[in-house]
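tokens incoming
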């Protein structure tokens, strides 16, 4: 049985893919682990080690073909398809997420937006009609959506996550500043900008 790939390695793959896409847009056809490393601040040895966990993508002395490696990383990350995503919370953060063009450029389509506030339901955010959160489980399950982003108050976050899991969601990006409990097989990624700021202030005079 093969060893599971460490999360930290999986986390670097989208960074490599983004750099490769940028190189392709520059008209480049070939790159090397050394050049990728210089662009990303990651050692060439680390890049080679990460990629080797998934197979052989280049030859020593000739480097990597950018189009081929981009395609392979896209398949590994399963972003060689379009994923529908639901957003729960149509406040400032939720609306900003709905409007962000970077999602569609990377294979994610905002399919549904939910909110519990009556004054927001049936209004639009980024051209998408906001749905009543009371229909969250029903609508998401019917659409077969597997990915959701939540931008709700911390006090509501766990209940929202519970409903998402019951609806069949298996990947959740949370902007709620609270730890969330999920069953095995469900992934949660927490995004709290204040924590990142606190990390940086440690290094300031």
């Amino acid at each position: 049985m093969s060893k599971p790939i460490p999360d930290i390695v999986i986390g670097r793959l989208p960074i490599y893919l983004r750099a490769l896409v940028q190189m392709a847009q520059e008209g480049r056809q070939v790159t090397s682990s050394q050049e990728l490393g210089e662009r990303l601040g990651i050692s060439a040895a680390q890049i080679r080690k990460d990629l080797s966990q998934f197979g052989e993508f280049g030859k020593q002395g000739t480097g990597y073909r950018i189009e081929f490696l981009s395609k392979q990383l896209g398949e590994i990350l399963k972003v060689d398809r379009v994923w529908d995503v639901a957003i729960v919370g149509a406040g400032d953060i939720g609306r900003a997420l709905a409007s962000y063009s970077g999602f569609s450029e990377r294979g994610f389509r905002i399919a549904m937006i939910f909110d519990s506030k009556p004054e927001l339901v049936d209004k639009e955010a980024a051209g998408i009609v906001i749905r009543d959160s009371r229909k969250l489980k029903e609508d998401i399950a019917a659409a077969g959506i597997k990915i959701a982003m939540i931008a709700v108050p911390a006090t509501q976050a766990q209940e929202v996550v519970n409903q998402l899991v019951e609806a069949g969601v298996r990947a959740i990006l949370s902007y709620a500043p609270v730890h969330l409990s999920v069953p095995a097989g469900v992934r949660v990624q927490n995004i709290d900008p204040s924590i990142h700021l606190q990390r940086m202030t440690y290094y300031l005079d």
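note: The domain at 83-195 is CATH 3.40.50.720 (Rossmann fold).
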